[in-house]
Amino acid sequence: MLLPLFTLAALLNLVLAAILWDGRFTADTIPTISSWSWSNQKGPYQWYIHGNGATSKYISTSASYKNPASSDALGLKLTIDSTAKWNSDMWRTELIPQTTAAINKGKVFYHFSVMHTSTNAPNPAFEHQVCFFESHFTELKFGWINGQATNTPDPMLRWYAGSQSRWNTNFTADVWHNIAFGIDFGAGSVTFYHSTGAEPLVQTAGPISTSTSSNGADWHLGVLRLPKSGVSDGGAEDWYYSGVYIESGTLTTSVAGPG
């Protein structure tokens, strides 16, 4: 029996795309993370960059926290507040992939979706570094950026590569932003893919030549908020994530994910 062309194309995509690391959230995510330690390194995430409160104070999962277009079981609500300090005055809650897979070699795609609501919304008066590598060769940023000419709060979500803003959009409440960092570690370049809601990912910026550098355990899923002198800290901020995985081969453009 002959298969329709669109079916063949879908099957080909499944063959060419391979999940290297799966960070999508399930009912086991929080219990596994809560028991994580350097002597008990289990599960898909390392969990050490957070405040001194209980794990449930900083991360929780629910079906209502995910992009409805995603096939994930659950989404993640990630919170930063005045207690979420780790080795500094920065507000930080971050998860790091725990894997021996080659997520720092060749050509790979780092997927995630991010959103906020009007409740405990991120404060645009502060610089936020979002889903970043330790060397910051590619990352998202939100809010007033250190070094900007004015102190005016900035409502834009920006993609940075090579320490420069390459793309931006208004970070409006209740809008899911679907992201893929297309990283070619061999060629030293990064490409940015983006969509909103249920729309498929499209190439939005890049490729940008930059010094791609990673040891395979330094991509921070979460938020780091820098302190700012003379500005009130304000209250807690809630950030929502879903569709988190890393793949090689062909980019999966569907927000539903690779299955």
Number of helices: 3
Number of DSSP strands?
Answer: 15
Annotated CATH topology: Jelly Rolls
The CATH class assignment is Mainly Beta
Radius of gyration: 18 Å
Shape estimate: globular
Structural class: mainly beta
Average pLDDT number: 93
Please provide a brief summary of the model.
8% of the residues lie in helices and 40% in strands. With 259 residues, it is mainly beta. A hairpin with a 2-residue loop joins strand 9 (156-161) and strand 10 (164-170).
Which descriptors apply to this entry?
Jelly Rolls; globular; eight-stranded antiparallel sheet; mainly beta; seven-stranded antiparallel sheet; 259 residues; 3 helices
Q: Please, could you describe this protein's structure?
A:
With 259 residues, the protein is mainly beta. The chain has a single domain, classed as Jelly Rolls, CATH 2.60.120.1160. It contains three helices and 15 strands. It has helices at 5-16, 29-34, 55-58; strands spanning 18-22, 45-49, 59-62, 75-80, 91-97, 107-115, 128-133, 138-142, 156-161, 164-170, 177-184, 189-196, 202-209, 219-225, 237-248. The longest helix is centred in the first third of the chain and has 12 residues, at 5-16. It is globular, with a radius of gyration of 18 Å. Mean pLDDT is 93; it is low at 5-15.
Write the layout of secondary structure elements.
Blueprint: H1 5-16, E1 18-22, H2 29-34, E2 45-49, H3 55-58, E3 59-62, E4 75-80, E5 91-97, E6 107-115, E7 128-133, E8 138-142, E9 156-161, E10 164-170, E11 177-184, E12 189-196, E13 202-209, E14 219-225, E15 237-248
Antiparallel strand pairs: 1-15, 2-5, 3-4, 4-15, 5-14, 6-11, 6-15, 7-8, 7-14, 8-9, 9-10, 11-12, 12-13
